Amino acid sequence: MCLPTQRNKGRVFNPSALSPRAVFLKICISGQAQTQTRRRFDLLFLPDCPPLGLESLRVDDSQIQASSYQRTGLGPHRGRLNIQSGIEDGDLYDGAWCAEYKDQHQWLEVDAMHLTLFTGVILQGRNSIWSWDWVLTYKVQLSNDSVTWTACMNGTKEAIFEGNQNPETPVLGLLPVPTVARFIRINPQTWYSNGTICLRAEILGCHVDGRLQYRQEPGSKDALDFRQHNYKEMRKLMKSVTEECPDITRIYTIGKSYMGLKLYVMEISDNPGKHELGEPEFRYVAGMHGNEALGRELVLNLMQYLCREYKKGNQRIVRLVTETRIHLLPSMNPDGYEEAYKKGSELAGWADGRHSFEGIDLNHNFPDLNNIMWDAQETAADKSKVSNHYIPIPEYYTQEDAMVAPETRAVISWMQDIPFVLSANLHGGELVVTYPFDCTRDWAPQEDTPTADDAFFRWLATVYASTNLAMSNPHRRLCHYEDFQAYNNIINGGAWHTVPGMNDFSYMHTNCFEVTVELSCDKFPHVSELPIEWENNKESLLVYMEQVHRGIKGVIRDKLTKQGIVNAVIKVEDHDHDIRSATDGDYWRLLNPGEYKVVVWAEGYFPSVRHCRVGMEPHPTICDFTLTKTPIQRLKEIRAKGGKIPQDLQLRLRALRFRKLRASTKAINQRRMSERVKQARKARSCASRMAKNITDFITEFNFISSKMFLIFRMKYVQESFPCL
């Protein structure tokens, strides 16, 4: 009697094969088969038992044993589903458990720590770019004491389970009869002929108490919709949130995926649909990689939580909603998610659904603006003249035949339409927060590549990582092969691996600061783990949003009209990254506490300078600026409108012409005086050289004359007195 193979439905036995009054459960206890009559633990409604947590690390290394292993890097602790190996084989972080011997007596054992109703095993081969190893068939054994073992039977024979045909695709093996025990072993029988015994695994089972009653996993105190939502269910949930909180929510779309699925965004604000002067714009983006599903569910949970807490009058949430315009995109890659969702949380593997339907990695699909800026800086005579912000998208990228996904184009257009200040994109597969630059100079594989705002980016990353319960746990195990705890669970993107992604594009093309949050070792957690993951991330999601209110903000206005000035440039001294004002003239500059000299200028205006102080308080410092138009700009505008030049402007232009005339006259006089001084110096120098030459000539002449006189005199004496 076998269970159905669909992973996302409640597991049931065939009702026609069982008595309606009693259900019989075969249980292996200490190797003895027993039969018990059950009424309360009704297998007609057997729950969809979750994974024990080898992949999500809920199962500790000490709970996993093996018959043998080749070396530490291939030990039993590496036999976890979807674990990834380092680049080099032979280190401490290889991608599977591998037995030392190639025989049928090898096994991998897991201690569930409690009585557990085991329902299945998921198997995977070795993750390696150098070796191909996987198990073709295996047996399953169970025990209550790890001494006496009983094989799972298929009728009168020991059950043989089908394993893998390649290293990466997970394969589910359902036990013919769900069995209660504490320990479970996987016993490989055959393996890939050119390889050895290597495997990664996950165990499916429900914890039960002494009376064999199903015990629920620990959850969350927040009554949210904790389940995996496909496209239709996601849309339905978002609609229910808007119906529950119509005054603070709005759903809109920013485009469609390749397969025509809409990219829905939930806006949460006290005035949805409108940008309010001075109110910063914030966004969360999830589901860029379709199989990294946790971010999608956290964003959906966040919508519900903000709505309900606002209605309850939670002052923290009320303040956040009234002072911030929040945008939540739960699924940037809905096509990829649907592919992963159909396979299920444990069977989607490490890569299924990661890319868009066209096979594009959306995070690698943004234009590379880093090297455009760096190349310009290297060739420029004056680096200060090179733009350090609002770098335009290259022309090749905007062409219709460019290899750009419609999802990427939609998000870029969204970024350009709304003056976002702060963002985070949510990923999965690790526990770390990365910050720009993600792309290294000269495409080095790994190199710390800081931005001009490195200190603030480190603060942003630390805020999320330090408040995340999983990341901040000092006793947690590393996910795969990198120990990010050594860096306080934050790292510069370029120091991890180089990729010109969304973070860098957001920073260099818009005003928005953005980081990447790797939420969990498990890319696609089982539904039973979602309440725990919500509790792990709830405070992090909230406190990160609150950082949008750090630094300085204000409005840049025209002195005469009092209207806001769009595209005014805001420069902070000693920070080689400028920002620009929004359509209404408002701006937000994220900064750490300190004293800053801020210079603001706009085309056709005189620049303005202020000193702004940022305190430790979690709210921004107001720094407004008023700019005065240059007379020439005013004249251009008046002439463009065909109007009459005002008297005051005529006087100012006349004064400006006189000032220029005086300046030019003064400059001419200064040049003339300089020329005269040069000529005088030249004349004096010439006279000095001439006088020196004459003096030298006279001295030489006198010397020669005196010498000639002596010679002549000696000759005369010799001729006159020959006998001397």
TrEMBL record:
Keywords: Carboxypeptidase, Disulfide bond, Glycoprotein, Hydrolase, Metal-binding, Metalloprotease, Protease, Secreted, Signal, Zinc. InterPro entries: CarboxyPept-like_regulatory, CARBOXYPEPT_ZN_1, CARBOXYPEPT_ZN_2, FA58C, Galactose-bd-like_sf, Peptidase_M14, Peptidase_M14_domain. Pfam families: CarboxypepD_reg, F5_F8_type_C, Peptidase_M14. The active site is at E518. GO terms for cellular component: extracellular space. Residues 227-548 form the Peptidase M14 domain. Its cofactor is Zn(2+). Belongs to the peptidase M14 family. This is Carboxypeptidase X, M14 family member 1. It comes from Sander lucioperca.
